[in-house]
Design goal:
single chain, 319 residues, alpha/beta, Rossmann fold, 2 domains, 5-stranded parallel β-sheet, 9 helices, 30% helix, 16% strand
């Protein structure tokens, strides 16, 4: 008999589904309130964990066999995972929510909606001048995974020309007019009206957009980042905004995070910052997708079937 810890926030019907999947194994639901000492002990002695436990609780485990994350990002767990344990993420759950957030940000920036709302709060009736056209823009998606594909499909449907960048294959892909490898980034940046970043945090992605890369970008381009904040050199980005090199930036992630109140990025020109909320459980469909991935992988692990979304511990990406 295996011990299973489930840290997902589930309703009673969903718990019944997990209990059925667990079969004769011992299943604990640890989703209510802060973790107690008893909960920590259960996690440390679990063979299977569903959700995102504090990483230090698994680092010394001698019994953990399978960790199914509820997040797409796996950083923080790769280095803590006991040898021999399997790590899977929830890639595929967040594309809908985050891509819609990205489209919304682009519309807001291009049509000056934040400026008009700021005027509304002061009862100011004022024409804010010319706006930008989305149709016909060239969109460069850095990180053409699930989220990048969902965003590209939406922007393509709006009449944009979409270019994707990914690590391993430049083969044509749905939603993209072109697909390239990371090595092509310097030659693609000057073409982009919009640079959309959907990258996880790995040694290869840290500050992949720095002052040199920002200098290659088209003057007046817009940057949007929904992956990880450390993929961008924050100081260089603030400088590119303040000098007018970039038209705007929409950031759901920052470096550091949370962004301190005194950080100069808050005051940069035409920057729009949200506190890492584009994914998470803010959309009911996202929570449903996370639950489905976790439930199916729990069943697969117990029955010995193929598990989806296994993370490559060397690269931080799923296989």
């Amino acid at each position: 008999m295996k011990t299973i810890s489930c840290l997902l926030n589930l309703d009673e019907n969903e718990k019944l589904e997990f209990e059925e999947a667990a079969g004769e194994n011992k299943l604990y639901f640890l989703d209510r309130g802060p973790l107690t000492d008893e909960h920590r002990q259960i996690i440390e002695n679990s063979n299977i964990i569903i959700g995102n436990p504090p990483a230090h609780l698994i680092s010394n485990s001698t019994v953990l066999e399978f960790l199914q994350l509820q997040s797409a990002g796996a950083e923080g767990y790769i280095s803590s995972l006991p040898q021999g344990a399997i790590l899977a993420n929830a890639t595929g759950a967040y594309g809908l929510a985050i891509s819609e957030y990205m489209v919304g940000m682009i519309f807001g920036i291009y049509k000056k909606l934040p400026q008009y709302y700021a005027n509304q709060l002061q009862s100011i009736w004022q024409d804010m001048g010319p706006v930008r056209q989305i149709t016909g823009e060239t969109v460069l998606v850095l990180g053409a995974g699930d989220i990048g594909h969902e965003f590209a499909r939406r922007m393509h449907a709006l009449g944009c020309y979409t270019i994707g960048i990914r690590r391993r294959s430049a083969a044509p892909s749905d939603g993209f007019d072109e697909m390239h490898l990371v090595k092509d980034l310097p030659t693609l940046l000057p073409r982009a009206d919009i640079l959309a970043m959907c990258l996880p945090s790995t040694s290869e992605t840290r500050q992949i957009i720095n002052s040199e890369k920002l200098a290659l970008m088209k003057s007046g381009a817009t940057l949007i980042n929904v992956g990880r904040g450390n993929a961008v050199d924050t100081a260089a980005l603030a400088d590119a905004l303040n000098t007018g090199k970039l038209y705007a930036a929409a950031l759901d992630v920052t470096d550091p995070e949370p962004l301190p109140p005194e950080h100069p990025l808050w005051k940069a020109k035409n920057v729009y910052i949200t506190p890492h909320i584009s994914g998470g459980r803010h959309l009911a469909e996202t929570a449903r997708r996370v639950k489905t991935i976790c439930l199916n992988n729990l069943r697969a692990f117990i029955s010995g079937d193929d598990i989806k979304n296994i993370v490559d511990l060397k690269t931080g990406y799923r296989y």
